[in-house]
Each structure stands twice: as C-alpha cells, then as structure tokens.
Amino acid sequence: MAEPAVTSRSNPLRTVPAGVSLGPPSDPEDPVARASRGRTTVLLVAIAALLTGCGADVPAGPFPPRPADIDTTSVDICAGLTPHQQAALGVEPGVPGTAELSEGPTRTCRWSSFDDGYNYSIQTLPVPAAVTVGSPDSTVQEISGYGVVQVPAHATSVPQCMTYVDTSDTVGIRTLTQATRPDKRDPTLIEEVCRRAEVFTSQVIENLRSAR
Predict the structure, then answer these.
(1) Cα distance between residue 67 and residue 82, in whole Å
(2) What CA–CA distance (Å, rounded) separates 158 from 156?
C-alpha cells in the first residue's frame, strides 16, 4: 500500500471556538452515537458537541489551498474505498448511515474488519474542518494536497485516530481509524493507528474527488 505524502505543521496560535469538544460519544442518547449502533458503536464522534458554539465566526484554518473542493453533500461517501482497497484492508463492504443534527444532516460509512483488528469510517460534517484547529492533542497536517487536523485518542485503551479534512469553506469530512483489539501493553499502537489513518484518509480523498 502506497504511503501518502504527509506534512506536519503544528499551529499553537489558533484555538477551537468556545464549547467545541472532540471527545468520543459519552451520552448513550446522543443522536450521532445512536446512528452508529451495531458492531462498532464507538466509530463516531459526538458531532452535536462539536457544533456547540459554532456559528458565523469560524476560523479560516492554517490550511494550504485545496486542489479542488470535494462535494460531500451529494457524493456517495461509501465510494471512499474501492473494492480493491477494501480487499487489501480485509474489511467488509461499507455500511452507510445517516443522522440529523441541529446544524444539518450528516452521513456515515463504516468498514469493519474481524481479522486484523482495525475498523474505518467516514462522516460528513455540516461545519468546516477549521473548527477543530487547536483542539487538544491535535496537529495540522497535509494529506494528498488537503489540509487536515489529526486528533489521536484513547491511546491506552481503544486507540483511534480522527482526521478532519478541509474539503470546502462550509462543510468537511472526518475519517476515523480504530484498533478494535488493542494490546494495552503496547503504548506505540496509537502510532500505527494514526499511520493507517493517514493512508486511509489519502485513499478517501482521492476516491471522493473522482466520485460523481
């Protein structure tokens, strides 16, 4: 599998708008968590919390110019992985889902693997990726020419790596890569999860750009 070109650029000067949270779902009745119940209920972030406090004053973000906007409002996001890529990852076909948030609808697609212990998902966001800049433990990077914010979480329990992609000025997408059979004795596992996240996100970007 080809490694994507990734450039890390930390940005300590920007902060997330008041009320923004990037934590995993903690409320069992959270609408986004409800939409993802099934085999991998932890795959989605609490987007409702992410949107709290977001309005017209959205930070521009320290991102490079986009090669092109990606239309996340109508594209089939399960096209984020080709059949060949799914086979290489050893995942089941993508399972689509939807949820309605106060800021607009969100769509998801998740791929589960019961062999190598990694799950992958995509979620459309009704806000731009710029709102996540400056969140705890985040780094601003560049993947396949697009600015992204990478946020690792749960390094010592169920490691996951969330990547928010700057697809346009008004909306974005988030990818999530998660280890489902973590070895708690290995503190470096989160590094492998985020490495896989970079490859997965690069594939998603390239596939969704060309999807119609």
Answers:
(1) 21
(2) 7
Residues with Cβ within 8 Å of residue 86, at least 6 apart in sequence: 92, 93, 94, 111
**Do the Cβ atoms of 145 and 64 come closer than 8 Å?**
yes
- Confidence at residue 185, expressed as pLDDT on a 0 to 100 scale: 62
Beta strands in the chain (DSSP E): 6-9, 95-101, 104-111, 118-125, 139-143, 146-153, 160-165, 172-179
pTM of the model: 0.73
Distance CA 197, CA 192 (A): 8
Question: Which residues have a Cβ under 8 Å from the Cβ of 69 and sit 6 or more positions away?
Answer: 167, 168
DSSP count for the chain of H helices, then E strands: 4, 8
Q: Are 150 and 162 spatial neighbours (Cβ–Cβ below 8 Å)?
A: yes
